[in-house]
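note to self — DONT lose this again. spent like an hour looking for the file last time. sequence + predicted structure for the chain T wanted, 353 res
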Amino acid sequence: MAKKTPLYSKHVEAGGVMVDFGGYELPVRYSDGILAEHAAVRERAGLFDVSHMGEILVEGHATAYLERLLTNSFSDMAPGRVRYSLMLYPEGGVVDDVLVYRRAEESYLVVVNAANREKDYEWMKAHAEGVTLKDISDETALLALQGSAAKEILSGVKLPEKYYTFIENVDIFGMNATISRTGYTGEYGVEIFLGNEDAPVLWDRLIEKGAEYGMKPAGLGARDTLRLEAAMPLYGHELRREYLASEAGLDFAIKLDKADFIGKTALESIPARYERIGAFVDGKGIAREGTPVFDEDGEAGLVTSGTMSPTLGKAVAMLRVRKERKGKLFCEVRGRKLPLTETPLPFYKRAKQ
C-alpha cells in the first residue's frame, strides 16, 4: 500500500489526481492540467510536494566515507554547499544519483530518490566505516517552490544567494526550516525541508501568498516535462544499474582524479560505448521512453525520455545511442519512421536574471 505524504489531504482538497509514485500517493496533475502547471513554473511559479524524497544523515568520519562511496569530491566543499553525485556499483552502473549537503565539517545530509530509498540506505550501511547513518525521511517534509516569482512569494524570508547552497534554521512564516537553492525544473527556485507537522501550514501560506503572482500547485506530470526540457536525468531512465555512469554525460560529477571510489576501476577499464544526447523529433509523433533508435547500420540505441515540449512546441527526446554511429538517426513510432535531429542539451535554459 502506497504511503501518504504530510500534504496528501491538501492535494485531494485541491483536486489533485493521485497516483502511486515511488511508493507514495502523489498528484500527477491538478484541475488546470499539466500544460498550465508547466507554464506557471516557466513564467511565474509552481509549488511541488517532493516529500517522497529520502533524507539520510551521515556523521562521524563522514568526508572520508563519502569520498569512497560517491563519485564526486567533498573534501574541498565548504559547509552550506550542495553537490550532485552518483553512487555506483563496482561494475560501474548506477545505484542512484544524490544531492549531498555539507552541514558541518563532518556532518552531511544525503538526499536520495524515493523509489531507491531503502536500497540506498542498505547500500550505504553495507559500506559504512567510521560513520553513523540515520534515515530521517519519515520525519521530514520537502516542498519545492520553483519559478521566477519565488523570491517575491518568499519576500522577507532569508534565502540562499547562490545556486547549490543552503541555509539551516531559517524562520519561514514562524516555522523552522532548511532552505536550499536547488530544484528539478531549470528555473530559479528553492527547496524547503521542514518537519511533517509544519508542512500543511506552510503549503497553505505559500498557496495564499502565491495566488497574487499566478503561482499554481504542480504535480508529477509538470515536474517531468520541466526536468526533461532542462535535460536533467531521471533514475530508471537515463540512469540505471545496466548503464555505465560514464555514458550518462555527467562527467562533472565523476572525479576520476581522486584516490578511489566504488566503481572507479570499472569506469577506468571499460570504454564508454554509448552517450546521452538530445534530439528533436521531425514530423508528427512523440518518441517515448524505450522507443528504439536506428542509424544507417541498424539499431543504434533507444529513447530514455521523450515528450512534447510545452515551452518549445515540438517533440524532444533524450537518447542513449552508440558513440560510433553512421548517418542521420531515426526512430520507429507505430510503424512510422520519424527522423531525429541531434541537438545540444539542455533543450531549454532560462535567461539569466
